[in-house]
């Protein structure tokens, strides 16, 4: 017994020292690229650690919560002599975009130093952890498309609703050309601004079009009517209202006001997380409307769910490696065996977050509307 205890102590000592050496923080912190103009904090270093500095001289406690709804835990800040609260995350964050907020003596606030993004059913602070593959969504000197807000009439809700429409760089140059359309949905707690603000989908499109990697198409992003459902209550969500808005109101409006190829073959639907659930339900309910289906961290399809295989041109399933990649791969294998054009993608090193969905969109876009 003593022999094993000694070995255990040695192992703990050895691996503990290795752990400390591996997690030594490199002091090369720089302001986040998503900071408000002129603000030095928050800061990010080359390892992905985040350092915060919050002015709250009278506070007794300041905690920063990272992730959707603060799900990734909190970083307790310490008060310095100058009245500022300072602290660094205990570990490196995953690459890409993250929501966060600050809790001061029990009250929830945004960080005054950071830009805000709509997530968790509220405007949250945002931070960007530099990624090794960030070039594909970087702002470059290439021709840029246009993201415009539209207001479309909705008889079913007795009001006008908002959507954002991305048109490719060539849209206003060659007015004789029409385009396929992707209807792209956000996740729970987000809205129609998410894919362009957090997802940078317009920049991904611009860059891939400039590189000749994709066929240009229009993207339409609207509110999925999901946020009335509490987090975790997806089973109680009813699709009928949003399906009516999308299929009977938004699509006819877009086809009447934009140069679209208005048929099932040239219409796709995709969504992340809860938007994936909406995509799955609507595409199965309305196979005559969409021909390309994509679920990004949003579940899977079964071959028996689809009544007419000839109507489906593509099924794309993706997630992060920290989610359930085996389920994605297994579903795609079964779909392929049943004769579907099915593709899986797993984002390495990411979870249920926008870096997964940015990468997923990059893989999806070249597969859409192929001749």
Automatic annotation (TrEMBL):
Record lineage: Bacteria, Pseudomonadati, Bacteroidota, Flavobacteriia, Flavobacteriales
Source species: Flavobacterium cellulosilyticum
Domain of life of the source: Bacteria
Listed SUPFAM superfamilies: alpha/beta-Hydrolases, E set domains
Entries under Gene3D superfamilies matching the protein: alpha/beta hydrolase, Immunoglobulins
Protein name in UniProt: Esterase
InterPro entries linked: AB_hydrolase_fold, Esterase-like, Ig-like_fold, Ig_E-set, Mycobacterial_A85_antigen
CDD domains reported for this sequence: E_set_Esterase_N
Alphabetized Pfam families for the sequence: Esterase
UniProt GO molecular function: acyltransferase activity, transferring groups other than amino-acyl groups
């Amino acid at each position: 017994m003593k022999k094993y205890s000694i070995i255990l102590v040695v192992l703990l000592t050895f691996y503990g020292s290795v752990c400390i050496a591996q997690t030594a923080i490199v002091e090369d912190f720089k302001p986040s690229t998503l900071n408000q103009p002129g603000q030095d904090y928050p800061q990010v270093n080359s390892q992905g650690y985040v350092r915060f500095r919050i002015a709250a001289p009278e506070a007794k406690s300041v905690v920063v919560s990272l992730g959707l709804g603060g799900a990734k835990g909190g970083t307790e800040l310490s008060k310095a002599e100058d009245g500022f609260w300072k602290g660094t995350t205990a570990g490196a964050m995953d690459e890409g975009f993250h929501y966060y907020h600050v809790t001061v003596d029990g009250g929830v606030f945004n960080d005054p130093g950071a830009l805000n993004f709509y997530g968790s059913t509220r405007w949250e602070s945002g931070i960007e952890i530099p990624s090794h593959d960030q070039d594909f969504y970087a702002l470059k000197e290439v021709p840029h498309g246009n993201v415009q807000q539209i207001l479309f009439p909705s008889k079913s809700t007795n009001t006008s609703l908002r959507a954002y429409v991305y048109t490719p760089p060539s849209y206003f140059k060659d007015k004789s050309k029409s385009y396929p359309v992707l209807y792209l949905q956000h996740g729970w707690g987000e809205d129609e601004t998410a894919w362009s603000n957090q997802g940078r989908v317009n920049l991904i499109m611009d860059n891939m079009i400039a590189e000749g990697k994709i066929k240009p198409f229009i993207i339409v992003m609207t509110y999925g009517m999901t946020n009335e459902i509490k987090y975790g209550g997806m089973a109680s969500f009813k699709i009928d209202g949003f399906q009516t808005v999308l299929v009977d109101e938004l699509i006819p409006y877009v086809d009447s006001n934009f140069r679209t190829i208005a048929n099932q073959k040239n219409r796709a639907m995709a969504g992340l997380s809860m938007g994936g659930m909406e995509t799955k339900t609507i595409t199965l309910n309305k196979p005559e409307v969409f021909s390309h289906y994509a679920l990004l961290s949003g579940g899977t399809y079964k071959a028996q769910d689809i009544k007419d295989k000839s109507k489906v041109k593509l099924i794309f399933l993706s997630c992060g490696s920290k989610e359930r990649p085996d389920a994605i791969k297994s579903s795609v294998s079964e779909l392929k065996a049943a004769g579907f054009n099915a593709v899986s993608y797993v984002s390495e090193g990411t979870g249920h977050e926008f870096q997964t969905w940015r990468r997923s969109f990059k893989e999806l876009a070249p597969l859409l509307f192929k001749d």
